[in-house]
Amino acid sequence: MLLSAKWIMPVNGDPIEDGSVLVRSDKVEALDLRATLVRSFPDEPEIDFQNAVIMPGFVNTHSHLEYSVFGRAVEPSSFTSWILQLIKRSRQLSLEDWENSARLGASLSIKSGVTCLGDIVSRGPGFNVLCESGLRGIGFAEVIEMDTARNDDVMATLSQRVEGWQEQCAGSLVKVGVSPHSLYTVNPLLLERLGKWAKGHALPVSIHLAESREETAFVRDGRGGLVGEYREFLGWDHFPLRATGLTPVRYAEQLGALDGVIAAHCVQVNAEDMAVLKDRNVAVAHCPRSNSFLRVGNAPVADLLGHGISVGLGTDSLASNEDMGLLGEMKHIYLAKSKNKDSAQAFTPRKIIEAATLDGARALGMDDQIGSLEEYKEADLIALKLSVRITSPNELFEYCVREACKGSVIFNMVGGNILFHQRKSVGKDRV
Ligand SMILES: [Zn+2]
Q1: 430 falls in which pLDDT band (50, 70, 90)?
Q2: Residues of CATH 2.30.40.10 domain(s) within the chain?
Q3: Rounded to two decimals, what is the model's pTM?
Q4: Alpha carbons within 13 A on the beta-carbon side of 293
Q5: Which CATH number is associated with domain 58-363?
Q6: Which of 35, 205, 244, 409 is placed for a possible disulfide with 113 were both Cys, Cβ 3.0 to 4.6 Å?
Q7: How far is the CA of 168 from the centre of ligand 1 (A)?
Q8: Distance 186 CA to ligand 1 centre (A)
């Protein structure tokens, strides 16, 4: 099938005006001028999106599909008050509620142009939904446990869960990973064990890291907002507190919990931390709108990029974001950078688009398969309609980060399957 549009944006190279992409089975076979491909493949069926851009699908490097039901109902007075509220509301949901919630998240993701997710799965139903959704991704089995006496049980349960999921997703577009939630919800001995275990089983790992000032105070000083009411509510107040004197990044490194992980947020990081992140081959899932909503600060993205660290974009969940798409994250970065010169230089419109696609794929270790439109890469691509006539690549980059919104998405294809076309969900149809 030929997919044609006014612009094709491969991301790894310059945009093609009046171009087409040839998709055969699950792969991109060619991209070129439309006239050339129509001449070479005269019998090939074609969808011509006309005034639109065809580009690689967005890679959401940090999401929680299961949390989609929550919505940003209450403005948080602090990070701790938000997370407490989330836990309280979580306890009212049945497994069926979690599944419906994840289904909502997957559907919203598809309509927003996301084709691949690094999704944190807390309860389990989210993994089934991810596998059935037609989306590509990694489902990270989340671990939360502060009681060291339970570590053996936790590892046994995790091992069983991961094995079951691997069987379930064999042959699908979904892989299994592990996510120790954070330094303030997983005990240090378990973090050490998880790091070694994941490495031994070659599983990708994702962790929330250096998100809030409360986390830094908890790790470094053994005090702050994550100590009092929070620990009491969770029944963790009798577990010993440690003032490590270290930043979250340094502490995670000391526990062996950092090598090659995808670290979500990384807001509270200094220059020394960034050198450690680079040294340990950590990729950052940058979640600008969630960070802004939770008022945890701005991640030093220009510096992270300056250190050569892979930075992908993430929405986090609908408990701290307004939608599940990356166009909103891109626009947020674009608007914020006008106030910050360093960030403006590091994050040009073209670079923002790369962060949402190819860099995100790199962060998830999938850039050999997806993230750009290249011959023999997977056919994970989307079309965004353009509301104005665009005459140059630079105008196109600028339009995509400034003007495009989730309503601009008119087509979503993952591995050659059309998941969404012209505002109609069509299920998994092979082209
Ligand atoms: Zn998160």
Answers
A1: very low
A2: 2-56+371-430
A3: 0.95
A4: 24
A5: 3.20.20.140
A6: 409
A7: 24
A8: 15
Q: How far is the CA of 234 from the centre of ligand 1 (A)?
A: 19
For residue 126, report the distance from its CA to the centre of ligand 1, in Å: 14
Buried-exposed string 205-219: b where 16+ CB fall within 10 A, e elsewhere: bbbbbbbbbbbbbbb
Bridge partners for 8 per DSSP:
16, 54
> In terms of C-beta density within 10 A (0-12 exposed, 13-18 middle, 19 or more buried), how is residue 380 classed?
buried
Spell out the alpha helix ranges (H) of 46-176: 79-90, 95-111, 125-133, 151-169
Tell me: the pLDDT tens digits for 249-269? 999 999 999 999 999 999 999
Residue 40, CA atoms < 13 Å, CB-side half-sphere: 14
Using CA atoms, how far apart are residues 141 and 206, in angstroms rounded to an integer? 9
Predicted confidence (pLDDT) per residue in 368-382, tens digit: 999 999 999 999 999
Bridge partners of 421?
411, 424
Determine the distance separating the centroid of ligand 1 and the alpha carbon of 128, expressed in angstroms.
Answer: 19
Burial of 384 (0-12, 13-18, 19+ CB in 10 A): buried
Measured between alpha carbons, how far is residue 181 from residues 64, 185, 339 in Å?
12, 6, 32
Residues that place a CB less than 5 A from ion ligand 1: 316
Distance 285 CA to ligand 1 centre (A): 10
The ranges of the chain annotated as CATH 3.20.20.140 are 58-363
CB 315 within 8 A of CB 289: yes
